[in-house]
Amino acid sequence: PRAWMGAKALGVNPLPNNPAEVMVAAWEWGAYLGEEAVRKGARLITSSWARFPANVMPGKAKVGGNYVNSALAKMEAVAAGADEALLLDEEGYVAEGSGENLFFVRDGVIYALEHSVNLEGITRDSVIRIAKDLGYEVQVVRATRDQLYMADEVFMTGTAAEVTPVSMIDWRPIGKGTAGPVALRLREVYLEAATGRRPEYEAWLTYVTS
Question: N or C: which end of the chain has fewer CB within 10 A?
Fold first, then answer.
């Protein structure tokens, strides 16, 4: 879905006499970071571009302008040979990927990163619910980059990324350097829920008829 202010006003104040417009686009996307990233885990590098603070842009809003920051980080990561960027906030704490929320696993506990400057992802919330239903302990924390380096697993969530394992950060292997079992289990259940094969999550779905 996309919503934007119409074209009846010119300038940086779009509000006067300018109606909101809405559209919904649908297409087959496939694995956002590639099938190999799903099977073996994505490779991340820390971006030189920081996630902007909350007093610069509203990071919790899915606003098109916010993605300039993401695009710069993503292009930098791809140019360096990685699959995705890892963005830090202005204080050096881990924020998110260019288009994904981040989780890590340590000693059987799943840690979701705080979203003080991050998008409050619907997929993130869904995966937290699934993890708890599967019996995992989930904690929401503020984390540093070295905590991810030492994690047993790292994975990302997002509308496009779904649940994608992470095998490497800054060319350091995470855990065994491959897709971890917790991430793969969560991905399996999430995809079952998204395709109507999990009745307990039926309320998450809106069916569209052709």
Answer: C
